[in-house]
Amino acid sequence: MSSLPQALQSAKEELLFCEQNNIQVLIPSDAAYPRRLTICEDAPLVLYYRGNADLNMSHIINIIGTRNNTSYGIYIIENFIRELQMRCPDTLIVSGLAYGIDICAHRKALEHQMKTVGVLAHGLDMIYPAMHRETAKEMLSHGGLLSEYPIRTRPEKRNFVQRNRIVAGISDATILVESAGHGGGLITCDISLSYGREVFAFPGPVNSRSSEGCNNYIRDEKAILITSADDFIRKMEWGNVEILSKAKKRGIERSLFQTLSPQEEIIVNIIQENGETLVTDIVNKSGMSLSEVNTLLFHLEMNGVVRSLAGGGYCI
Q1: Is 221 left (phi over 0), alpha (psi -120 to 50) or beta?
Q2: What is the model's pLDDT at position 106?
Q3: Could you tell me the pTM of the whole model?
Q4: How is 253-271 classified by DSSP, letter by letter?
């Protein structure tokens, strides 16, 4: 009984800290709680979340790997996220804010205007490692930070293994970029497989220690080999890759928007920024009339730039 007053005081301090720092306290019955996690038997009973990304976005992936990445790993992440942004911009990218592949994934997501969430192994009253603090601050307005740990929880070793189940459970799929033969990334892969989620891996040179884990998982058929975002999207059935590839060949990339009229460019930008978008939302965001938007969408669809969806929406 003597510990009860102390526990109540800690709870009051926790709530006050959350209120002062715009932190949401989520439990499984809340609409904002990640629904993908609710089907995992070891899902956290409480989550602390600070950010603006929807934790139930239609597409969520995690990108993980070694803390000792090479330039090859950076090259893979850069190209993968750039292509993913062009083809499936409504994807949330999750990782652990750690050194190496994690922080590279967060930073490349930010560079390409994609939402990214870091799952932490400690309370939201600190950032570890401290040198990632600026990136973490930027993520608050372009994604967020998530933890199951209350304030004053330090980044102990066992917490990192525990948080890996959140990284896996919140996602539709795991992307392994570089990994040695043993490491935290492989733990996340195993957890993802136990949850029935897809695991993908980029292969590397057979003599590279940084790719040993990736190559082994592909060899043992625990991970699906991919070399591009197209490979991933095709396997996940997240879009018509053939149509998207044709659009790319016709020059409908962001860097080639000079082929579009100013009004068409506005509409394409709106859809790229919001993912699958309803016509009414395009009208509201563009300031154009409904008839004008419908005419422009028809022209864009005929030229393979956008595709109509069931329910009145459009995607790139």
Answers
A1: left
A2: 98
A3: 0.74
A4: SGGGGGGS-HHHHHHHHHH
